[in-house]
Structures are given as C-alpha cells and as structure tokens.
Amino acid sequence: MRSIKIILIGSSFTIQSQFIDRFVNGRFTDLYDCLIQDSYIKCFEENGQKIRMEIIETQINEDFESIIHNLIWESDGIILIYSIDNRDSFNSISNYYSKILQIAELPMILCGNFCDRHNSRIVTYDEGLELANQIGCPFFETSPLSNINISESFGCLKNMITKNENPAVTSHRSTKTKDFCRI
Predict the structure, then answer these.
(1) Which domain holds residue 153?
(2) What average pLDDT score do residues 8-37 get?
C-alpha cells in the first residue's frame, strides 16, 4: 500500500479542520477545534493501488519552526492555505513558504479557502493566483461549505507527489507496510 503524508500550513483563520473534514468524511461541520496539530486518515483505492493518505492539520503561531520542522521533513507534500476574508492569513503564506524551503523542497499547492464568502472577500482571486505563480505552485479557491475544489486540490497534490516520487527523498521514512483502512 502506498502511504502519503500531506501537511496543511496556514493560520488559525483558515479553519483547516472544515477543509479536511469535507475531504475525508464528505461533510461540512460548523464545529471545529482549533488545535495546534491534528491528523486525519483517508484510505482509498485508485487504479488498483491502495493509498493511505495521512493529513496533518497545523495552526501556525510564533513557534512555527519548533513545531513544524519534523512534520515538513517527514511529509510528501504541503497545502498552503489562507482565508480569502483575512488579509493577515494571506500575507503569512510567503513567510511560511520561505521557511518550508529552508527545510525541504516538496510538492505544494496554494488554496484560498472560503471562496463562497463573496460579501466578506478581502483577498482577490488574482492576488492568490499571482502568489501561486510567484512560488511556482497550482492554485485553487476552495469552500468546505459549498464543496468547491476540495477533492480537486487534494487530488492535484496527490498526483504531484506520485508523479515526482523519488525513493532517495523518502528513504528516511519508515517502509513498514500498514493494513489497508476499511471505511
């Protein structure tokens, strides 16, 4: 079974648990727990191959480096996420990106979350697209409530990871075989 580890990095304003819950469980919930770190598992089969995707939610604060360094080192890909109705969450992405590059070069995508919040939008689509072009990664505007581009964003990152798979890069990770998750 193929195991993939993805980390979401963004400020607490992005409410990553809603984003992840929509992907993993196919539902939207108003309730969320603002933890520093939480993890989720989604198992599926694709083209006859069993895939176990571990998704790590992080809420970044001043202790960015101490908390996130090992997570980045052990991951296969990163979703940088900001909220379209919070300028600070958007402005933080460039800082997160440069700190990530100091640790590892990994496949990444950029997501502007809550794209259905038209009346409270502060960050434009074009600003998000421009930032994605600057850092050289795909860009999605997403909404857990309306289920917009959630599966597409995870699918894009998964495809980037499996397409660019390099055994030398992941050699530090465990090669233990895990049982396939049944849902």
Answers:
(1) 2-163
(2) 68
